[in-house]
C-alpha cells in the first residue's frame, strides 16, 4: 500500500528546511516528470497547448513549456496573467528562451496540459475559468493534468466543473483529493512524479491514509494438508424478508473458503443450494455471522446481541436502533452504501446530513465515525471504497461500474464473513475481501452492465 496525504505543503517545507532543496528545484523536477511523460509517449510533431493559471500550478506549466521548447510545437496560454512570484520568475525565463505565448486558443491541439489551479483551489471557479474549462474539455486532444484536474478542490469536491484528463501526473506524494468519488471520472490514470528525492525521503511524516494495491490482498489459499472442514470456520448468515440477499451472501462465503456455511431463518428458504445448511438458530460453533442483507423485520435481534462472535453488518441494519448496541461490541465490520451510512450517522448522533453532503466529504465523516467507534471496521461503498479503522483509512480504487447492481454488496458481506470465520482479523478480512471483490469486476469480460452476483462469485474463485 502507498501513503496518501491530506496536503503536501508541509512535505515541501521539510525539503526546504532540511535539505536546502528550495521551491525552484522541486518545481523543476515536478515539471520534468510531466515533460518526460510527454517525451516518452508522443512524437515530436504533435502540437501541445499548455494552460497556465496565475499561481504556482501555472508556474509548473510554464516550466513544462520551457523543458519542451523546440522539441514540440508549444502554445503557452496564460488567460489570467501571472501573480505569484514563482510564476513571474518562471515566465521571465520562458520569455528569454523564446517560448511561444499565445493570446487565443482554438481546436486542433494534439495534447492539452492543464496547469490552471492544482490542489490549491479553495473556492468555486469564476465564470471565465468555467468557460475555459468547458472549451478545453470539448477538445479532442489527449489531456494531461498537472498535479490534479483544475476544478477539484483540496477535499476532492467539484463545485461546478473540472478538467477531464486522460492522465493526471501528481507531484511528490499522493493526495487525498485524488480519491473522492466526484474526482474519479476526471483524473484518468494517476501517475506520481518524483521531486528529485526518493519517496522515502519526501514522505517524511506519518500518513493515516493509504492506497491499497493488489499485493495487499491475501487470499485464503489452503496449504495445510492435515485439515478438515472445521479447520476453515463455520459462517452463519441470517436470512430475512428478502431471502435471496442472504442466500447470495452464504454462497459467497462458502465459495471463498469457509468450511461450513449455515443459513439462519425461521423457515428454510426455497431452492436453497444443496451445499448450504439451514438452521432456525445460530450454530453453537459459529465463528462469524453476517446479517442485515434483505433483513427487514423478520428476525429478533436480541439473540444476536447476546453473542460474542465476530459479525458483519450490512444493509437494513443501518436503519435500526439496535445497531447502536452492536457498535459497542468488538469484532464488528460495517458495510454501508452512502444512503445507509447517512442513516447511521444520524442514529449515532454524529451528523444529520444529506447523501450529497456526505459524498462531498466522505473522508471527514468516516474519520468522525472511527474516532467515536475505534474498534469497529467501517467499509464505505462507493466509486472508491474507504475502509476505516482506528482513524486510519484504506482506499480501494480498483472496482468498476460492473459492481453497481443489486446483490454485489451481498457478495461482499459474505466474503468478509468467510475470511473472519477462517481466522482473519476483521480489518485484514475487510481489506482482502474488498480487493477480491474489486479485482473480479476488472476481470469480468462481458458487457459492463451484465454481471450477476453469481458470476461475480465465480470470478472471485479463479483469482
Your description of this structure?
This protein is α/β, with parallel strands linked by helices and 463 residues long. It is built from 16 helices and 19 strands. It folds into two domains: 2-206, YjeF N-terminal domain (Rossmann fold); 215-460, Ribokinase (UDP-N-acetylmuramoyl-L-alanine:D-glutamate ligase, 3-Layer(aba) Sandwich), CATH 3.40.1190. Helix content is 35%, strand content 17%. The strands form two sheets. Strands 8-1-10-19-18-17-16-15-14-11-12-13 form a twelve-stranded mixed sheet, with helices on both faces. Strands 4-3-2-5-6-7-9 form a seven-stranded parallel sheet. A hairpin with a 4-residue loop joins strand 17 and strand 18. The two termini are 19 Å apart. The relative contact order is 0.10.
Give me the CATH architecture of the largest domain, please.
3-Layer(aba) Sandwich
C-alpha end-to-end distance:
19 Å
Q: Give the C-level CATH assignment of the largest domain.
A: Alpha Beta
- How large, in whole angstroms, is the Cα Rg? 25 Å
Number of helices: 16
Largest sheet: 12 strands, mixed
The fold-level CATH name of the largest domain is UDP-N-acetylmuramoyl-L-alanine:D-glutamate ligase
The neighbouring-strand order within the major sheet is: 8-1-10-19-18-17-16-15-14-11-12-13
CATH superfamily of the largest domain: Ribokinase
Shape: elongated
DSSP strand tally: 19
Q: pLDDT average, as an integer?
A: 93
Identify low-pLDDT runs. Answer: none
Strand content: 15-25%
| Total domain modules | 2
